[in-house]
Amino acid sequence: MTGTLERPTLRNPYDGLASYGLFIDGVWVDARDGGTFHSVDPTTGRPWAEVARGRAVDVDVAVAAARRAFDGGWRRTGAAERAAVLRRLGDVLARPDVVERLAVHEMLDTGKVVREAVGLARAFSSWCYYYAGVAESHRGSTIPVPMRDTFTYSVPEPVGVVAAITPWNSPILLMLWKLCPALAAGNTVVIKPSEVAPVSTLEFATLLAEAGVPPGVVNVVPGGRDAGAALAAHPGVDKVAFTGSTATGRSVMHAAADNLTRVSLELGGKSPNIIFPDADIDLAVNGVVSGCFAAGGQMCTAGSRVLVHRSVHDEVLDRLTARAQAVRFGDPFDWESEMGALTWSRQYESVLGRIRTAVAEGARLVTGGDRPATAPTSTGFHVAPTVFADVRPTMEIATEEIFGPVAGLMPFDSEDDAIAMANDTPYGLAAAVWTTDLGRTRRMVDALEAGTVWVNCYRRVSAAAPFGGWKDSGLGSENGLEVMKEYTRSKVVWIDTNPDARDAFRLA
């Protein structure tokens, strides 16, 4: 793979099936029962990799390896040493050859086009660098207590073995959201990537030794729901970090409950994009495109409920329709291609089914709704950017997460209307407000029930900024300093500095 830093020329390096095992205790092994499964290239609908299928017995082996690594030394590594490992991992991920390599594998696994895959891959290292700094600065505190001659302080300690169950839409990035703070805190990790798109995570695992990550500190067990369920319910796991659907998140929480295992959940969403008449309409429409059509709409934060003030509704609809119809499909390795395929066949059929239901319920299909005429193959899982008008808040398209490139426009007449419509959902992951009115911005931000609110932008994330959902969108936090609470437990220490005997029946 060669090319400039800005637009490298990437290609598919495989003539036949790539082959991957399980990564446990620093070595590659087959599944205990010898089982395998295929990863399918979404652009062609054909298998491109054969992957070992981990099951409960393999999960047992991986958790045991993580426990040995934790008890055997990783938990006692100094903050500077953990930071150095994360910095070396960041240096490896920042190399242009590694950026290109991981981008190609995400493209083949998920259907992303090169412009998106490379952009994501270039951001991976920033999570390692940020949490290297956190590892060295994260600390407890001294506590002023009323008892005389007593020194009291708290220290954060790692929880132990972390199970990271990750999704198929952005596998490496969302895995790093869990892995980096877990390692910074001194935990070991067992990753269970989605069986739909496991290969890029396995390719990432090939880099760990080069970065000096000790054997057993990071393990990867690809597999299906049975592997995920075994990991969530495993008595040797101290914390489960999950990203996926709300329904599966509930199952994970139930599985972890018997062991009282800590759980953090980043789940689904049905995010509103709220456009006021004073907004920059071109900017707002571009934000809807970014928030709903980028990555094929396969984002938990997808802004698929487009709430538009009635006075600018038709203008927004016309501009959004024109932009949707201009989206370029083509070879995913072509930098001119703007949108790729959905990641797997079941999601493809689900999205088309949701579109048919919307039409049956009376929504007006303005554009899209089927395979685009310019799709690069006839066998891939491509869906054209789809825009609906005349959407009512009770329609399935307005209440259920689509996870595809489908936007539904709904008019509103006032701020109060917009707030009521935006919050009329069991989800609370994200929202966006498009306005140039500072007072309105403040009122809307205060009123919206969402963990993230973007104003005049969409899809912006950073390792430094906490990310998490309200209501049915999840529990706990990812990113930022707050996430360290998810991966540490606090120990409070009391030291009596007065050698004189105390009255045993007094607390002070």
UniProtKB/TrEMBL annotation:
<dbReference type="InterPro" id="IPR016161">
    <property type="entry name" value="Ald_DH/histidinol_DH"/>
</dbReference>
<comment type="similarity">
    <text>Belongs to the aldehyde dehydrogenase family.</text>
</comment>
<dbReference type="Pfam" id="PF00171">
    <property type="entry name" value="Aldedh"/>
</dbReference>
<feature type="domain" description="Aldehyde dehydrogenase">
    <location>
        <begin position="28"/>
        <end position="493"/>
    </location>
</feature>
<dbReference type="InterPro" id="IPR016163">
    <property type="entry name" value="Ald_DH_C"/>
</dbReference>
<feature type="active site">
    <location>
        <position position="266"/>
    </location>
</feature>
<dbReference type="InterPro" id="IPR015590">
    <property type="entry name" value="Aldehyde_DH_dom"/>
</dbReference>
<dbReference type="InterPro" id="IPR016162">
    <property type="entry name" value="Ald_DH_N"/>
</dbReference>
<protein>
    <submittedName>
        <fullName>Aldehyde dehydrogenase family protein</fullName>
    </submittedName>
</protein>
<keyword id="KW-0560">Oxidoreductase</keyword>
<dbReference type="InterPro" id="IPR016160">
    <property type="entry name" value="Ald_DH_CS_CYS"/>
</dbReference>
<dbReference type="InterPro" id="IPR029510">
    <property type="entry name" value="Ald_DH_CS_GLU"/>
</dbReference>
